[in-house]
Amino acid sequence: MSFAWLKKYLPRGLYGRAALILIVPVVSVQLVVSVVFIQRHLEDITGQMSMTLVRELDVIAERARTAGTRQEALDRMEPFLSAFEMDVRFVPLEAVPDDDYIRWYDYSARVVRRTVRRAMPETLATVFPDNRLILLYFQSPIGPVEVGVNRRRVTAAAPHQLIVTMVFFGGLMTVIAFLYLRNQLRPITRLADAAQAFGRGRMVPYSPSGATEVRAAGGAFLDMRSRIERQMEQRTMMLSGVSHDLRTPLTRLKLGLSMIDEEEAEPLLRDVAEMQRLLDAFLDFSRGAAEGEPEPTDPVHLVEQIVADAQRAGTPVSLGACEGAGEVPLREMAIRRALENLIGNAVRYGSRAVASVVVTERSLRFRVEDDGPGIPAELRAEAIKPFSRLDPARNQDRGSGVGLGLAIVADVARAHGGVLRLSESASLGGLCADIVIAR
Hints:
This protein has helices at 14-66, 70-84, 107-119, 161-199, 212-257, 262-287, 299-312, 332-349, 380-383, 405-415; strands spanning 86-90, 123-127, 133-138, 145-150, 295-297, 317-323, 328-330, 353-359, 363-370, 418-424, 431-438. The protein has 439 residues and is α+β, with helices and mostly antiparallel strands. Keywords: ATP-binding, Cell inner membrane, Cell membrane, Kinase, Membrane, Nucleotide-binding, Phosphoprotein, Transferase, Transmembrane, Transmembrane helix, Two-component regulatory system.
């Protein structure tokens, strides 16, 4: 039997699930004990006490049945009333209630009524006006009889005491257990916060604490973080070193080519310029999103600046819808590089581009669309990989590249805890690239 449908109703947070684990067993035990107590203890005792009352009522009723007048019946009942602790009087028929009166929550009163009516069919009504008195009405040959009985004779004095005590101490122990469990969960939440911050490119101080298993997981996280940092540093140093070392021979080539005939040197200069552009792409990829810590940035203003700078440079890009407001922690230079790469790709493979941004309480989305050929859905995951060049998807006669543009954008998005999503533009028909960052 599958319980997958139940998952959407369960708490998503660790504290909520821990509270549920504590509360459900306590409530279940209290319900079971309450039902057993009511059915087997309270009901049995009330039934036994009610049968004792029934036998006494039968003695009183017998005196009424054999008497000729009401006064004679009262005289015959008198010796028993003080012993039975009852008050008896004859009432007119119109004074008898039309129906029983029992409060909806009064369980023991229902047991008393059921027992009395089953043993004495001549019962006209049973009334429980309060917690101290019971009024019973019976039919006799000389008229209706009202019998007043102290309720303590047929029901327990405080039948709810066990339930109230059980609920109170159950709640108290649940609170104590939750406070203790919260201290055990705090190291796990600290580990989750540190992992989430590292996934978004931020370093927060963290030291393993808590139970042995949590300490082991925290130590493993620190080792993993150190290895990733070393790998990123080595990648940056390697690509930066190679790109930097190649600049010197390129400069010498440019200088040598400037001394020969301009017509002969033109194709070689184009090759040198292409190599220079590829080296710049390597440097951008090596830097990734490593420039400093995130700072409060206005995404709308940032996109407006990028579009204005691109338009001044002659790039056919326009500003689309800009929704929302507020500052978001971003690495401004990294986001600028990512958006400039997307705009550059858009105008390289299309005739125009549109940049937009949407800021909500839970997410931030940068979007760049073009009217180019786009990328087929089955090749979009491949297009994000470094050094990937999709000849069938993008017309590379309109611009060559090393295949790092989308990889740089995806790297910047991941460094901000976001993702790069590629789809088809609904308005322009080309590629739609979204950088989605959770807030």
